[in-house]
Amino acid sequence: MTPVTRFTRESADVFTFDLAPERATPFAPAQFHILYAFGVCAIPISIRSASPSPERLTHPIRDAGPLRAAHRKLQAGRQ
């Protein structure tokens, strides 16, 4: 599992979080990750444009669907 290093509420229904993979992970435009909330769901989430820190991947998420309850438990330092 990859730890969440930052969690930011962008608006009433959008939040972003950063993941810190064990090694820098290059990615291409329009690439996405399948993110899991164990016991809740697995969803495809796009990677936000290139971060100035290649060791960090930022994911924007709209607060909707089955992930709604799971994201409330998400916070920096958790996996």
Report on this model:
The protein is mostly beta strands. It has one helix at residues 67-71; strands at residues 4-9, 14-19, 32-37, 41-46, 57-62. A hairpin with a 4-residue loop joins strand 1 (4-9) and strand 2 (14-19). The longest helix has 5 residues, at 67-71. The N and C termini lie close together (6 Å).
Task: Briefly summarize what is shown.
The chain has 79 residues and is mostly beta strands. Helices cover 6% and strands 38% of the residues.
Task: Describe this protein with a few key phrases.
single chain, mainly beta, 1 helix, 5 strands
In total, how many beta strands?
A: 5
Average pLDDT, rounded to a whole number, is 75
Number of helices: 1
What ranges have pLDDT less than 50 throughout 5 or more consecutive residues? none
Estimate the strand proportion: 35-45%
Q: Major sheet, described briefly?
A: 3 strands, antiparallel
Percent helix range: under 10%
Question: What is the CA-based Rg, rounded?
Answer: 12 Å
Spatial arrangement of strands, main beta sheet? 1-2-5
In one word, what is the shape? globular
* SSE sequence, one letter per element: EEEEEH
Oligomer designation? single chain
* Alpha-beta classification: mainly beta
Give the distance, in angstroms, between the N- and C-terminal Cα atoms.
6 Å
Present the secondary structure layout.
Elements: E1 4-9, E2 14-19, E3 32-37, E4 41-46, E5 57-62, H1 67-71
Antiparallel strand pairs: 1-2, 2-5, 3-4
